[in-house]
Amino acid sequence: MIVNMKKLFSNCLTGKRLIMSIVSMILLVGVVSVSAYELTKTSVTLVINGEETILKTHAKTVDELMLENDILVGDHDFIEPALDTRLIKDVNVVWIPAKLVYLTNNGEKLPVWTTSDTIQELVAELNIEVGEHDKIEPTLESALVEDMKITYESAFAVTLRSDGKEKEVWTTSTTVADFLEAEDIVLGELDRVEPSQVEIVKANTDINIIRVQKVTDVVEEAINFATVTRNDDSLTRGTEREVQSGQTGKIAKHYEVIIENGEEVSRELVKTETVLESKDRIVAVGTKQVAPKVTQEVSRGGTAGDWLTFSSTAYTASCDGCSGVTATGINLKANPGSNVVAVDPNVIPLGSIIEIKHNGRILGQYKAADTGGAISGRKIDIFMAERSDALRWGRKNVQVRIVK
Q: Tens digit of pLDDT for each residue in 51-61?
């Protein structure tokens, strides 16, 4: 029995060794398999946004590599080599995810996918040349971030005329008002701009600043005095005496004057005031009757009413120093058709009606209603309405007779 027990124990030990050998064999095969699997992996370098990671993979293509690493490559992302490229040992795979930004280009808003790092790289990518006077916000050096809003306005030239100067100005303004603000141009209360401030500014637009001033101009003017005649029976008829000297008056006219860019464009009279009152000149005209010498003069040729020879000239109501009013008070300017002569009252009494004949033709009847310093003796001065007629008359010998 003891022998049987020994034999059984020996058999058990032999079975355990067998099991241990089998397990060891399985483990060895597993280790060898794992080692072989790892040894068959391809070594690649994955670069994401500039950061490098060395990977070992059984992926056959770049696409499989990205999916193996839970990376979904978008349509706008940068990937190099392409997704369908087969992987080889020690290859570098570069992936840059795209960002969505919003670019407003001269008023047109556009969504843009980009892998650029800065705004400067983005405008280069879009073939936008940013000139010296163009406006872009944020600045070109700004880093791009998701959903960033970028505004770009290209500049253009306009002509500015202001304060007597003309210059070319580059601007991105949309209206005249925006342009004035950008150029720090301040309009006064009366100033204006052409075109108006609401107008859209375009290339080659002419912008004119009109500086407007409103001033008051006071102009003084002289007021001529009038000559007033008064009958005086203490004076011999045909004589005059100045009773009161005339005095020239003065008025001030107030004008509202509009000046644009230094030049007067309008003038409006707003007020007139008297600075100095004018004073009439008063002349006393004699009405006293005297015994005329005409009786003796006329009687020399026979009875009263005979024709006598006189030297004649002509005058008008507007001659230098003339008041236009005769010695007997007739206003010749108001009555240009009057038949009036100036006489020497000692020869022909004032108020007489005379008849004048020249070269045998009777010119008409005239009233002796005026006198003159140069009219003495047998001389008469015939009133004519037109100066040209008086000049043509000159000096002529005429026949004169008293009608009544």
A: 888 888 888 89
